């Protein structure tokens, strides 16, 4: 961290050796959750030699990235070679996604989606619902490999969520805006 994190020009008196609010703030950026029962190298991944920022891995499957877009992208690119061998289908060519737009609140469709998820789970299909803050419509997704089976569910799901199938989340927003004359 010392080698790659240079003090800002406004921090003329910054010292790595003396306690100060600035030093505490820098060190806080480097604090990561550590599980003493796991190997450090599997919990703190330095995937780019040019960065002092690691990726923190919790429980072997949760990866914590910094919220700075440039760092996030650079670290994600560096992590790709480590993740790809773990993926069943790295290109995602055998995985399909069907997207629905619904005017109903997530809490309104939760019961139906919970039942649907239990029904389709044995076939490897995942059901998701996503609020779209500031929008009138929310999204529901089906993700899986059995495209034919997923396609057969479309009419039932459209009815169950009082929604429509869309290609992009915004599609139903646009038709709703047009209908209202906006």
Describe this structure as you would to a colleague:
This protein has helices at residues 21-29, 69-83, 106-120, 147-160, 170-179; strands at 44-45, 55-58, 62-64, 96-102, 126-130, 138-144, 164-166. By secondary structure, the protein is of the alpha+beta class. The strands form 2 sheets. The chain has a 4-stranded antiparallel beta sheet, with helices on both faces. It has a 3-stranded antiparallel beta sheet with strand order 1-2-3, with no helix packed on it. It is elongated, with a radius of gyration of 23 Å.
Measured distance between first and last alpha carbons: 52 Å
Proportion in helices: 25-40%
- Figure out the total of helices: 5
Query: Which strand order does the major sheet show?
Result: 5-6-4-7
Oligomer: single chain
What characteristics describe this protein?
elongated, 182 residues, three-stranded antiparallel beta sheet, 5 helices, four-stranded antiparallel beta sheet, single chain, alpha+beta
The gist of it:
The chain has 182 residues and is an alpha+beta fold. Helices cover 35% and strands 17% of the residues.
């Amino acid at each position: 961290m010392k080698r790659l994190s240079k003090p800002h020009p406004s921090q003329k008196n910054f010292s790595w050796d003396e306690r100060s609010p600035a030093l505490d703030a820098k060190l806080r950026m480097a604090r990561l959750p550590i599980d003493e029962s796991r190997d450090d190298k599997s919990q703190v991944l330095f995937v780019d030699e040019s960065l002092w920022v690691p990726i923190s891995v919790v429980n072997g499957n949760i990866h914590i990235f910094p919220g700075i877009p440039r760092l996030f992208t650079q670290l994600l690119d560096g992590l790709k070679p480590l993740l790809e061998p773990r993926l069943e289908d790295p290109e995602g060519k055998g995985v399909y996604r069907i997207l629905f737009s619904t005017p109903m609140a997530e809490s309104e469709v939760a019961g139906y989606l919970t039942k649907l998820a239990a029904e389709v789970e044995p076939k490897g299909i995942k059901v998701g619902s996503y609020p779209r803050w500031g929008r009138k419509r929310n999204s529901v997704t089906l993700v899986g490999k059995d495209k034919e089976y997923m396609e057969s569910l479309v009419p039932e799901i459209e009815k169950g969520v009082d929604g429509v199938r869309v290609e992009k989340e915004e599609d139903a927003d646009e038709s709703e805006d047009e209908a209202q004359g906006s």
